[in-house]
TrEMBL record, chain A:
GO molecular function annotation: ATP binding
Family per record: Belongs to the ABC transporter superfamily.
Organism: Paeniglutamicibacter terrestris
Protein's name according to its UniProt entry: ABC transporter ATP-binding protein
Regions that span the bilayer: none
Entry-linked InterPro entries: AAA+_ATPase, ABC_transporter-like_ATP-bd, ABC_transporter-like_CS, ABC_transpr_CbiO/EcfA_su, ECF_ABC_transporter_ATP-bd, P-loop_NTPase
CDD domains named in the record: ABC_cobalt_CbiO_domain1
ABC transporter domain sequence ranges: 6-229
Keywords, alphabetical: ATP-binding, Nucleotide-binding, Transport
A Pfam family reported for this protein in Swiss-Prot or TrEMBL: ABC_tran
TrEMBL record, chain B:
Membrane-traversing stretches: 21-38, 44-61, 73-91, 103-124
Membrane topology: Multi-pass membrane protein
InterPro entries xref list: ABC/ECF_trnsptr_transmembrane
Location of this chain's protein in the cell: Membrane
Name of the protein in question: Energy-coupling factor transporter transmembrane protein EcfT
Principal place of residence: membrane
Source species of the chain: Paeniglutamicibacter terrestris
Key words, A-Z: Membrane, Transmembrane, Transmembrane helix
Pfam families: CbiQ (PF02361)
Amino acid sequence: MSAPAIRLKDVGVRLGEVDVLQNLSLDLQARTVAVIGENGSGKSTFARLLGGLINRTSGELSIMGIDPARRAAELRRRIAIVFSNPDAQIIMPTVAEDVAFSLRADRLPPAELTQRVGAAMERFGLTELAQRPSHDLSGGQKQLLALCGAMVRNPELVIADEPTAYLDARNARRVAEHLLEDAGHRLVLVTHDLALAARCEQVVLFAGGALVGLGEPEEIISQYEAVLAC
Amino acid sequence: MLTLYRPGTGWLHRMPAGPKLLLILSVVLVVSLLPAHWSTAAIAALVAIVGYTVSGLGPGLRGIRELGHQMFSLRWIMVITLVSQLIFMGPEPAVANTARVTAAIVLAALLSLTTRVTALLDAIERGLRPLERLGLDAARCALLLTVTISTIPVLGRRAAEVRDAQRARGARNNPQTFVIPFLIVALKHADELGDALTARGVR
Ligand SMILES: Nc1ncnc2c1ncn2[C@@H]1O[C@H](COP(=O)(O)OP(=O)(O)O)[C@@H](O)[C@H]1O
Ligand SMILES: [Mg+2]
């Protein structure tokens, strides 16, 4: 991990008539990075930009050496994105089939597919639920399934946009542990949970579509809390 | 009404998804094309009963019980079809049409009862592949079908949420106040689903 995994230089994103992100320059080196800021500050736009779901309007961007605007397909093979709403992330009717869906494009031999899916479900505690209809699961189980579907592809970078927003405390903690656990992936975690942000190695603070803080969790979180207190 | 796969080992379960799709489709087609006679009602009922008995859904009366289950979930469709046609067309076409429609639906359900969606997705993709020379993207079409099927229960639940929210605010069940919020919710879901599909490796 020598060259910065994520590097932005003067990046701007314009959506419709709005400059949602402006003059964004930063290097992210740490394995786990939290992104915090008020509603509408541009966190989701930043996450979608890193995930290759939207393109920049100006500037330069490199993610693990890849320019998403040029090699979007390659980038998507190496990263995974997790969203807040599990209902919109689950596609197949049963748990095991949904996990396998993430590997469809790889056209693996059946034995290897079964093995990979089985191992991933085991890791996320979904083995008992393998044949259950995925839309009948509880919210927490659904989000674990969404996470399992993201992780089964062994991504190098996981981008999570408020992945615990809809969960109760216990399920939020389970999801967070899986995200923070070092399974060989980097993590960019958008969250309103400051205790969770404090557990990342680096924190990014957004306000009004601009970067206003980047550094150690303690420092940036107190900077944010000072703004909130006003 | 959206039937789900039930694990099993009968011959219909073991049959490859492609040929099974064609077989069930042709039976459904024949039943739907029967004329509107009294005899059609009897034939349609017979075909459905035979279909559920011989397809190896399980030991003993398992197949017939499954048929009962399916018919029960269709009860309102049956009542509505029957009553509306009794009023407008008389008893013979009403009974024949209702039997025909019900039989077609329960026979089609045999496919989803005995086939995993993944197998179906693969079969449709393979079946459509010859059309790729005409510019059709087989994988995308198969996926579109799958996503459509899996979206129905989600949208059903969202519709119930919208209705609940309106009732909580004292609104009566009113299609006019329902349509707009539901459309917004549905479009938002489509938007999120598109992102999720992209994120999960679909081009
Ligand atoms: N597609 C869009 N078109 C126009 N404006 C948008 C679009 N998406 C987001 N915005 C605006 O960009 C700003 C940042 O949004 P977002 O990145 O979702 O913030 P956050 O995730 O921090 O709440 C908001 O003011 C929002 O209204
Ligand atoms: Mg957001």
